[in-house]
Amino acid sequence: MRNKIYLFLLCFTGCFVSCDSFLDLQPKGIVIPRYYEDYEKLINYAQLLKASDSYPNFMTDDVYLPDDGNVNFNDLEVPNRNLYTFQAEIFGDAETDGLWEYSYNRIYYYNTIIEGVMEVEDVTLDKKRSLRAEALVGRAFEYLTLVNAYANHYDKNTAATDPGVPLMLDKEINKSNLERATVQQVYDQILIDLDTAALYLPSKQKTAYRASKPVGLGMLARMYLYMGEYNEALKYAKLSLAENSSLLDLKNYSVVDPDKSIGRINVPYGADNPEHIYIRLAPWTFGFSGTAFGSDELVALYDHDNDMRFKLFFSNYAWGVNYDHYLWLPYIYANMAMSVPEVILIAAECEARVGSKDQAMLYLDQLLEYRIVGYQPQTAATNQEALDKVLAERRKEMCMLGCTRVIDLKRLNREPRYAKTITHVANGQTFTLEPNSPRYIFPIPPKVLSFNPNMQPNER
What we know:
Layout: H1 2-14, H2 36-43, E1 63-64, H3 78-84, H4 98-116, H5 125-149, H6 183-198, H7 213-227, H8 230-243, E2 276-278, E3 293-294, H9 296-301, H10 308-313, E4 314-318, E5 321-328, E6 338-339, H11 340-354, H12 357-368, H13 383-397, H14 404-412, E7 422-426, E8 429-433, H15 446-451
Antiparallel strand pairs: 1-3, 2-6, 4-5, 7-8
């Protein structure tokens, strides 16, 4: 009986038809799980093990695409060409924005667990609280991505009025004419979810596909970093690292077969990589691999001879072809959620901003010793120099990863020292994206707006 309930829930919520609803998604029927095992199966549901999307990278300064060849601009799908050339519209009326649609689909599942698991009677209170905490982290993670993709970057002076994204906090999705919560309201909900989860998350899980205490603390650090609350971000980053600071020594790995894509390198991935503390895969498992070249600016940041991130993850040879530029070519599972290196870099950035430049460099040393052959500890004469170095390492360490670079560009554009204009060339035309342009904010999908006339669109 339990398995039937679970399968009915998945089948019915996986079969969608158009309706006058918020998401343009409507389950044909819903059967609520009754036992703890049912909810645990939901938290392990394949769609919940994914997150975000890779296409936002097309609008960043990390990506280069020529006009011809095996990997080129003209072979992109239309939405990705629109992103690369900074068009006002990205998706057409009949096209699906996977980042939005699947994020809200996952939120529905998390809401089902959050609402229902405490009512089951076949396990202890601690187990129910722990599973609910995992779902709260998952929901907070989805909203932190959504609000940073589809809204103005957090600004304490305007967040209370800036339109964010709709808050769906229950399992009822048969709603119409929904409106957007403010950016502040979305962040307030993220904080509530993470603070509540922190009380009940286990210190360690059997697998990194399940949220644990260092994940909840790390997510708080990420949230406060995006808010510009650097003291709070530093506090939670330190707490997360106290729980788990495992790193993978990339110097122990190599390119084992340059003629392959999958299997080109022998770096462990998924749960076999100890620095992945929370794993959510890209919709396409290998993420952005093989999709574009690294920009000249990005590629120039690496030590080509000694930085294993460059030697392993980029190549100017693939599929029997020699290229003039370096392809992004890891072909290992793309973890879109959270890793120890990110938490270390948050701590380092916050130390450089509000703490000690020397401590910031120690955090960099901690990471780069596992990345660079013959690494020598770094120094910085000022906090500003330390911050410059940390931000360069963040860009190298986290490139081509979901919405990360887009969000970093949005937040750093607020600082004159880091504001930049991005230039892409396609078919002989030059396209530019100015700092703080409204085109950094993704449009609300046309299908969503068509079902929700009261929902405010983003002006691009």
